[in-house]
Amino acid sequence: MELEDLRIFVEVADAGGVSSAALRLGISKSMVSRRITRLEAELGAQLFARTTRGIALTEAGCTFRDYAARVSADLDVVRETILPAGELRGRMRVAAPLSFGPTYFAPVLSQMASRHPQLQILSSYTDRFVDLVGEGFDCAIRLGHLSDSNLVARRIGPIFGKLVASPAYIEAHGAPEAPDEIVNHQVVMRDAETWQFMDGDEIVTVRPQGRFIADNAMSLVAAALDGVGVAYLPEPLVAEHICSGALVPIMTRHPIPPAGIFVVRPPGQYPSRKVRTLTEMLIERFGTR
């Protein structure tokens, strides 16, 4: 059983198809199919159920996927340990938020790939919190205030928020002047959010109620611009609209406490060199404010 067959199998399982895996790996679909067929023959088990819609892991494939991912990851750690300090190779799977990732974090990842030509970087942009262990990610970049978990987090810099509304909304409904007035306003929000504000040296927590709920921050920006309601958003997403006057900062006497940008990784004694290198590059880029 060849290690490369294991890597290709994991890629097909994670990508959800031969074509997507071949594109990620930079090899032909026929080669991917041959490797999977050979691996199934060696194991004497069917790893994928093939249908007209595509492929899906069988029960045996689900079990084997976790084993193959662990073996591949362990070998990457061994390679990192014995390679010269400046070299990174193998692959690194990174999850980043869709609202910020392509603009703010993708340039750092591309710079890392340029510096380390033997390193394969697989990035996934989504505003949901991925299961790092279950989905095979080396790390994720997350924003905000982290909830308690068994993940290991490293803060790389601050991120600031703004409470905003459109001029049309303010003209029609007014603007809240204190945190307890927010319950009287329509808001645009992620599901089950809590909002925090400063009242002097104290942090006040509010649970808003809104009729426009989305799992993507850019959708909330669009709704705020259309006057649907008050929005509680990271400053980088609304700075341009504030400058143009399309959105107006409100309740400025009660600023939003700074949140953070974090790199989170699965539990373990030490992060891999790949994750450490990415973390250092992100700190260099975002840790100066």
UniProtKB/TrEMBL annotation:
<keyword id="KW-0614">Plasmid</keyword>
<feature type="domain" description="HTH lysR-type">
    <location>
        <begin position="1"/>
        <end position="58"/>
    </location>
</feature>
<dbReference type="GO" id="GO:0043565">
    <property type="term" value="F:sequence-specific DNA binding"/>
</dbReference>
<dbReference type="InterPro" id="IPR000847">
    <property type="entry name" value="LysR_HTH_N"/>
</dbReference>
<dbReference type="Pfam" id="PF00126">
    <property type="entry name" value="HTH_1"/>
</dbReference>
<dbReference type="InterPro" id="IPR036388">
    <property type="entry name" value="WH-like_DNA-bd_sf"/>
</dbReference>
<dbReference type="InterPro" id="IPR036390">
    <property type="entry name" value="WH_DNA-bd_sf"/>
</dbReference>
<keyword id="KW-0238">DNA-binding</keyword>
<dbReference type="Pfam" id="PF03466">
    <property type="entry name" value="LysR_substrate"/>
</dbReference>
<keyword id="KW-0805">Transcription regulation</keyword>
<comment type="function">
    <text>Transcriptional regulator of the ttuABCDE tartrate utilization operon.</text>
</comment>
<dbReference type="GO" id="GO:0003700">
    <property type="term" value="F:DNA-binding transcription factor activity"/>
</dbReference>
<dbReference type="InterPro" id="IPR005119">
    <property type="entry name" value="LysR_subst-bd"/>
</dbReference>
<comment type="similarity">
    <text>Belongs to the LysR transcriptional regulatory family.</text>
</comment>
<dbReference type="InterPro" id="IPR058163">
    <property type="entry name" value="LysR-type_TF_proteobact-type"/>
</dbReference>
<keyword id="KW-0804">Transcription</keyword>
<dbReference type="GO" id="GO:0006351">
    <property type="term" value="P:DNA-templated transcription"/>
</dbReference>
<protein>
    <recommendedName>
        <fullName>HTH-type transcriptional regulator TtuA</fullName>
    </recommendedName>
</protein>
